Amino acid sequence: MSTNTGMSSCCMSGKIRDGNPVGHVETVGGLNTYVSAPEGGSKEKTVIFLTDIFGYEFKNVRLLADNYAKAGFFAYIPDVLQGDPLPISFLDNVEPNLKTQETLTMVDKAKNTAQVPITLGPWLVSHREAVSRPIIDGFVNAVRMIPGTNKIGCIGFCWGGRYAILQAHGQSKSAEGSSIGGVDAAVAMHPSLMSIPADFEGLSKPLSVGLGTKDSLVDEKTRGQIQDTLAKMTDVPHEVRIYEDQIHGFALRGDWSSDKDKESIDEAEKQGIEWFKKYLS
User: Fold this and answer.
1) Which DSSP symbol is given to 87?
2) Phi and psi dihedrals of 124, rounded to 5?
3) Cis peptide before 117, with omega less than 30 degrees from 0?
């Protein structure tokens, strides 16, 4: 039996990080793309970032890509939403971090909950799989054709997390019969909109997953289903790391002012970097 995980106000929660991105924007595969290069500019180990609903201009994801570049990866953040992210303003007024949630009244929580379908419903229709998957596959193909590119990894967050999992299925066939998409290793941080076990059963490349115990989209039962499904895949490297008391979106939009949250954010970053160092070498 398949389980479908949805989206909630958690998908629109979080904090904006301090700092200034150091990369630049250029056109790659027909998409506006944030590019952050490692020292020396090697494309031997490339990582493609698939964003959450806030898109490729969100400062947090650019700063994270810069950190991956410092670790030796050539990082791309394509605008797979094609100029249609949700506004950053939702970060502060839809669902705050756990510490703030404790102070909210029932009326405030009801307003937040009511806002979700109004905001997300039309957006999800516009960015359904039939629309987004070909865009992502095409971008992976374009990157693979760039001179100097060798191994390609993909990391996805929230909405983008599911597509990172699908890229770990390996290359698929287009309607014309040509090979499209597919990466050499993938990381999915607090993925949403998953179909379980279907999205994991086609796995053919190494996959690392990060989940929070307070994630409203992936409860304990769902985490168990993911772990059970992956446990059957003895021929494909995989891992699932659980982060205590972390909500949906923590790896990209967590509260840096909280020591506990910052520790989880740092560990999630380390999780992805170590996975790619191992499987893109």
Assistant:
1) P
2) -65, -35
3) no
For range 65-76, the mean pLDDT: 98
Q: Report the C-alpha gap between 271 and 254 in whole angstroms.
A: 16
Q: What is the mean pLDDT of the chain?
A: 88
Q: What pLDDT is recorded for position 34?
A: 98
pLDDT score of 47 more than 80:
yes
**CA distance linking residue 219 with residue 216, whole number of Å:** 6
Distances (CA, A) of 61 to 53, 70, 102, 113, 255: 11, 14, 27, 26, 14
Give residue 109's pLDDT. Answer: 56
Residue 212 bridge partners (DSSP): 243
Helix axes of 59-70 and 259-279: crossing angle, nearest 10 degrees: 50
Dihedral class, residue 125 (left if φ above 0, else alpha if ψ from -120 to 50, else beta):
alpha
Strands (DSSP E) found in 63-122 = 74-78
Looking at the predicted structure, is the pLDDT value of residue 142 above 70?
yes
Q: According to the model, what pLDDT value does residue 110 have?
A: 54
Structure-block tokens of residue 138:
């095409």
- Residue 239: what are its φ and ψ, rounded to 5°? -155, 155
Distance CA 149, CA 152 (A): 8
Higher pLDDT, 48 or 14: 48
HEC letters along 151-214: EEEEEEECHHHHHHHHHCCCCEECCCCCEECCCCEEEEECCCCCEECHHHHCCCCCEEEEEECC
Split at pLDDT 50, 70, 90, the class of 48 is very high
Task: Record the tokens describing residue 224, joined without a space.
Answer: 């168990």
